[in-house]
Design a protein that fits this description.
Two copies of one chain form a homodimer. Chain A is mostly helical and 459 residues long. The first copy, chain A, is 66% helix and 6% strand.
């Protein structure tokens, strides 16, 4: 499917270059706006307005929403006032607000000037809510009903109002001061046996709602838990101010997963997709963590330096440092990443800390013992017998494997506790992932290693 | 919100223990099925059927779907034939199929025996599709319309059939042999100006659909791209067999993100949530990778052993091995994780490989130079002057920092190329993440380090 689409894409771009506008127009009209938006990515700057003007009014607006901010800005700058107004009129308020957020100030001014007063006030309202809050991703366009309407009146109202609303399938029942009383779905309305039933009798009263200040991640979690199409957003007095729709929730879930993954790998999360990030952007996201971890490796250098004599006396010990630190780091990051993901999916809470620790201790003991046994045999067979490294004595092998076992157990403890601790102090647990934990575990594993060496080898 | 809910939860469980069933019943009826299902997690085995029987018929079915498989199995085993039938009658087919997938064979047999013949055949059909395919997550209950129906007739049909369908908001237009011709939304129907308009005139003809064999991840990506409520699933002859709904797509997106994160951290993905995984489960998921990486560290041991003399001659060199390998590993995993996430979000394709490499080279050179400069100064100020380690000469410092710069650049190359290569040979790019790359980068960094040491220090 994806490959077939690339061929279509190329054919369309060729038509544009060959100025076969009439054919192109006929094809574009059958395409999905997301796919049309994709076409613009392959275009040169001057071709963008050309292709855009081939779209009909409604499709132009839907496509515009899906385009990249660069292309949007280019188009807005090139639009006549009339064209700009036409596109804005077709946009839903939350989409318009998203676009406004991405644009430079002078473009924003022009957008707000040409939006109709109602949309202008809605955009302004959404823009004032804190970033990543329910308020910032909601739309103010929804169908509202009154308590004493009949089913027939309600359907009539939807028919009259619905064309401009982002979703008509969930309607909200409000009283005169816009307090949220209940909700009715179009399914309920269509399947009601009697058209003269009052809304009050069929509406769902025990509502799940969020406030404008609710974090968008919590909002998205509620969608994935309850399978809603839309979720009402209320202010401090339970007065309805907007709705969040499932498609926005889906985007939030994706964004948050990406953000977690980036944090877990020691990168500052970026709003830009990879393809749009310049090497300088990537550098800025990556260098702070690399610097931090490079400098914090000073500890491991110091530990090694202070055991220099021991290493000189038992030259075989040095060879196993990377294996020890690597296995410790991997063990720790397995535990931390599992805990971080469960925390962000809401499966795990801070109060579960005792259970997590007990579970990880048992897992760690099993992993530690299994690794130590296999490692012992491997070192003896491969390093000692096969490679003939006579510096490796029975005791050296034992030191390595005891240190390995203890390191794995310690690493898993650290790995599961740090994200829980971060959660407790309201930090993002994702920062407590592999790179951070490796640094701690590296130092720990060296200390354990040299301790055993001192005890058993007397170095 | 979440905390308030925990208080309610406790109050309800107390009521159950105190046998205040009437009050409990009144409260349960106002609650969302997902929340009711959550209550069962805190119950003892014998309390589960007790609480379940307080639910009314429809709510019982909806709650049952949201419960954990253990509790479901317990209930099914305890149900009378009549109770089982009542719950099954209320289930949607895809939910029933999900439940059947989780149950042991004798329970499945009992479920299939009591499901009505239509549901039985649908469940069987869904169960035959390959795991993780669109067929396995679809439901066979959707509203179908005919080409020459009027809007009025269509609405009438929805009213008659809709009560048993998972979504009524998107209806599919089929011809006599069930070939998919187009779709019509309830919004289109309600907003149609004339009730006698034919469906053929308002339906969307240029459809996006998937086949039963399409991978569920691709299906989920289409939802997040196109914002659909439902997506039609067809067989090889474009005959309609079912629909996938947005809530299932959302679940798939979550699962796939979790799977990627687990693979990236060197764990076998698990179907069970963390809280339900025993230490033995966790051990099984984690130990294969730990073993693999522990054994593959043999390379680093061998490299160090073969340079034993060099290390003995320049004792200061050993102290920087962990820093060098750690920074290399982190640099590599930053690049690999970024590329892996972009690949799984569909932002990046294999054909972009040249662009990725060029972008990463430039980023890597910047990171490498910046790190080397800071590292040089840090070693001189901290390790040499502050700690007074006189083994660190200007040349030793230079060797460390040159090796660091080259390692970072090499690590980022390896980090971005391996996932692309995995994609090219249809492997999951996520396995090419940090643990795998660290192993390669560890060996690389040591080789580079000793090479520079040989050249500049003559060891």
């Amino acid at each position: 499917m994806a490959e077939r689409f690339e061929i279509v894409e190329k054919a369309l771009l060729t038509m544009l270059e060959e100025k076969k506008y009439a054919v192109l127009k006929d094809i574009l009209v059958t395409m999905n706006p997301s796919d049309v938006a994709g076409l613009f990515d392959g275009l040169e700057e001057k071709q963008i307005p050309l292709l855009f003007r081939l779209l009909n009014k409604e499709q132009a607006a839907e496509t515009f929403v899906e385009m990249e901010p660069d292309a949007q800005e280019l188009l807005i700058r090139g639009f006549s006032d009339n064209e700009l107004k036409e596109v804005l009129d077709e946009l839903y308020v939350d989409d318009a607000a998203d676009i406004v957020e991405e644009m430079p100030a002078n473009v924003v001014k022009r957008i707000l000037k040409h939006a109709d007063p109602e949309m202008r006030s809605s955009i302004n309202q959404i823009l004032r809510y804190p970033e990543y809050s329910a308020g910032s991703i909601m739309t103010t366009e929804y169908v509202s009903l009154r308590l004493h309407m009949t089913v027939e009146e309600a359907i009539l109202r939807i028919r009259r109002q619905g064309v401009d609303k982002e979703t008509i399938y969930t309607c909200y029942v409000l009283d005169k001061d816009r307090t949220l009383l209940g909700l009715v779905t179009v399914k309920d309305l269509l399947l009601a046996e009697d058209d003269s039933t009052e809304i009050a009798d069929i509406m769902v009263k025990n509502l799940i709602y969020v406030t404008t200040q609710t974090d968008q991640e919590e909002v998205a979690r509620m969608f994935s838990k309850y399978n809603f199409l839309a979720l009402p957003v209320v202010d401090g007095e339970r007065r309805m101010v907007g709705i969040v729709t499932f498609d926005d929730a889906m985007d939030v879930l994706e964004e948050e997963a990406t953000e977690d993954i980036e944090l877990m790998s020691g990168m500052t999360p970026s709003e830009k997709p990879y393809l749009k990030s310049s090497p300088v952007d990537l550098f800025k996201n990556r260098i702070p963590w690399l610097m931090l971890m490079m400098v914090s490796a000073t500890f491991t250098s110091l530990i090694i330096t202070s055991f220099e004599d021991a290493l000189a006396a038992q030259v075989a010990l040095t060879a196993f440092i990377p294996m020890l630190m690597g296995t410790g780091g991997n063990s720790g990051s397995q535990a931390s990443v599992t805990v971080i993901r469960s925390l962000s999916l809401g499966e795990l809470k801070f109060r579960d800390i005792g259970m997590v620790l007990w579970k990880e201790i048992r897992t760690a003991v099993m992993c530690g013992i299994a690794l130590a046994i296999v490692c012992f045999i491997k070192i003896w067979l491969v390093d000692r017998l096969l490679m003939g490294n006579t510096h490796i004595t029975f005791l050296v092998d034992l030191v390595v494997c005891l240190a390995l076992c203890v390191t794995v157990i310690a690493a898993k403890m650290v790995g599961c506790m740090l994200p829980m601790a971060a959660k407790a102090v309201k930090l993002d647990p994702a920062v407590m992932a592999s790179p951070f934990i490796s640094t701690i575990v590296d130092a720990l594993s060296l200390l354990v290693y040299f301790l055993f060496a001192k005890m058993l080898l007397g170095v």
